[in-house]
Specification:
- The protein is of the alpha+beta class.
- Helix content is 20%, strand content 36%.
- The protein has nine helices and 31 strands.
- Helix 1 packs across helix 8.
- The chain is globular, with a radius of gyration of 24 Å.
Length: 426
Amino acid sequence: MEKEMIQEIMYSPHQVSFRTVPVPQVLPGQVKVKIKMIGICGSDIHVFHGTHPFTSYPVTQGHEVSGEIAEIGENVTGLRIGQQVTIEPQVFCGKCYPCRHGKYNLCESLKVMGFQTTGTASSYFVVDASKITPLPEALPEGALPHWELARKYDIIDFDLGVKLTGAGFPVYKGKGARLQRALINYFLDCNTAAGYLEVEPPVMVNEASGFGTGQLPDKEGQMYHATADNFYMIPTAEVPVTNIYRDVILDEKDFPVKMTAYTPCFRREAGSYGKDVRGLNRLHQFDKVEIVQLSLPEASYEALDGMVAHVESIVRSLGLPYRILRLCGGDMSFTSALTYDFEVYSEAQKRWLEVSSVSNFESFQANRLKLRYKDADKKTRLAHTLNGSSLALPRIVAALLENNQTPDGIRIPEALIPYTGFDMIK
């Protein structure tokens, strides 16, 4: 017995929503690996341990789970707290009984926890083992955070940056500088291979450009302002790249427009302090590679999905544990219609670090930019704009240094070795 449609769980720390999706045709015997526990109780997402649904704990956004994974008839201890998985809807049966919350059914035949959608039927969420992104193995005792590794291997000099400019302006040296250059080139190559046109824009923009993408008049307090000429240092390449098409009218056939750029970025970060801004965690000047798309309105969310998948492929290629967060409205900028954040896990700091945001602005920026196109009926319409970090370097470097430290040095991910020319920092 199978059901054609179920409700897929979509959630953030502040809200839970649902959308209806098709259920693949999967027979119980074909389900090889599955999570035995997941569901919603009130406003919290819970993971249920073992085959008994009464022991649970809240799960934060990003599909973090802990407990057991099982094959048919066999219990296998495998997942650790913080391990990321992809949860997929698969099958249901009618041989289940409800848990104490009255919202879940436990399927004895498949030993998976399911969310009851209608009547007595239950939908089940299973995990594809090939999509599990494990956290790194626990680092040896005495593992160092990246700012101490930078000093140990003489690759980043934070004190010299303070001497030359101030806090938040590090100096990269030797293999540290080569790692920066390697990451920039690798990210650009990944983007151009995906069809993005590389551009090299100015790093200072005028007021009209800042207004067009929504930085002004909202974020002038966080931007460096050259008052003599009334220019602003860019906080992201999104600003100059998107403004290339300010006051432009395109044809339908011109879409999609895909661009990528590397730039240094400048942010005052006023009010930031404490242990969470140490080292590379929060800088005033940093390197970032950006992707920007201009899209037809009816195709912009398909474009967003493609951009998210593209950024995910780059993060995965670096071997870093990551999670993707779908932000609720209160966490998004006022310019965005939908934003996904990417975070990588720092084993030495025991925390998640944001490395990318991928957003669909729909027509908000286009309206400010007067970015339009002629449709098939020759009517002028507003385009949609999207952008994403692909990727921001500082926290990527922090996670690479910390997660890959060994007694012999710091391992370089295989994908980067052709770009660095070395496989170890030691």
